[in-house]
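debug: dumping io for the single-chain case to check the tokenizer round-trip. Nothing else runs in this session.
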Amino acid sequence: MSLKRKLFVTFAGLGLMTLLVAGVTIWSMVQWSRTEQDLREHYMRSLLLQEVRASTFQASLEVGEAINTVDPDARQEFDDAILPAQGYLDQWADLADNEAERAEIREVRQAYEQVIDVSYEAFDLVEAGDNEAAQELFDTQIEDLDFPAFQAVAQNAENNDRVRRDEIREETESTRRAAQIMLAISSFGALSLVMLLAAYLASDLFSPLKDIRNAMHGVRQGDRKVRLSEERTDEIGEINSGFNAMVAAIAAREHSGGMENRRLMEGQNGAENGAASGREADKDGEGSSWVETPTRVTLHRMISRMRSDVAKLEDANGDSPRRRRELTADLRNLAQAVSRLTEFSYPLDLNLASTNVRETVYGVVQRFNGELIERSVSLEVDISPEVHRAVVDRLKLREALSELVRNALEALPERGGRIGLRSRLSDNDGVEVLLIEVADDGSGAKQSLIDQAFERDLTEEYSGISLVRAIIEQHGGDFSVESEPGEGTYARIEIPTRD
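debug: decoded output
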């Protein structure tokens, strides 16, 4: 299953569980609202029925008053007393929910109307002057039959409402318990799904991404043996396969580059000492071997031979040391330009290999030995015993150190001055790094100018510091420069050893 489908299924399940929780919650709220409404209505039914009973009882008292006291207003007072009862009875009838309740209403209304009809019959007898007949009707019909019958059916209806209220309360409690159980189950399911989603993201997404990040960091640090698992069949597996292919291609390229690098170094080490023999080989017809030599080696050999010829020409013409130094400086700048053109075109392409750091540092010192002696520059070299080998691009590290020493020489006066070069191993957040420091007591520069030099492109003029930074950062290291006018300059290189 693809990563996209896995995420879709997981989030769809989470969405369905969320809808379930929301549905259960809404259902519970509707049920509680309905049962609460039923309870309120049944309470109201009981209250209205009690009001009907009270009004009917009050009206029946007016009948007795009319018979015993011959009150001319008794009939009107009866009508006033019975009028609210009729309204209460109508409201009570409107609250009936089922046929049983409507049957109770008809029964109560029938008994109520019977009481009213007999009461009006008694009033008619009183008004006709037959109090004795009215009294007998009141005693035998109203008090003994009709009114007790009305009270009985009304009380029965009220009892039935009370029973119904108890049933509604029980139903409400059952609904509440069911809703609580369903909410608990759905909430537990939603929480479980969220935990499963978190576990899935951690194991199936975040963990592979972390492995990819660590592998990329390892490649940046020079590890070309790192590989990622290709067992997955989703997008992560495709990324891992592509990453492994890329690292394999880089390793193959660096291997071939390292072989060419060694050939180049052999050519460079023998260039200056073999300049004369090279010319003799040309004269003897063996110069055709240069055609088969890599272009970079050929350029370096040609420049070395030119340097030798210029030195001899100067000695023959008796030029001053200053003039010879200027000519040599011009030739050195030409060599530097050609070297950057052929070896350090941007972006940099490192040829990493296990390199003897001590030998490389002393090689840089030897490179400037003649100028150091001629200008009476004091050089202090301090290489710790633990400094041995590191996985670096030897040519580019050599060029970076040469650039720093060259800058230090340019900052010193015409004669004299001091340069310090120190190398040791250090620890940077648990990672062993090769530390190389170059310092001088020359003219120095403002730190703002140093910072501006860091921002220059490699193709711009005075881009030596920018070149050094590019080389060191391509190695996965750090490069910094501190300088103050009149107080010299301090440069610091940190490169992971990856030995």
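debug: round-trip ok. Residues 197 and 339 are 56 Å apart (CA to CA).
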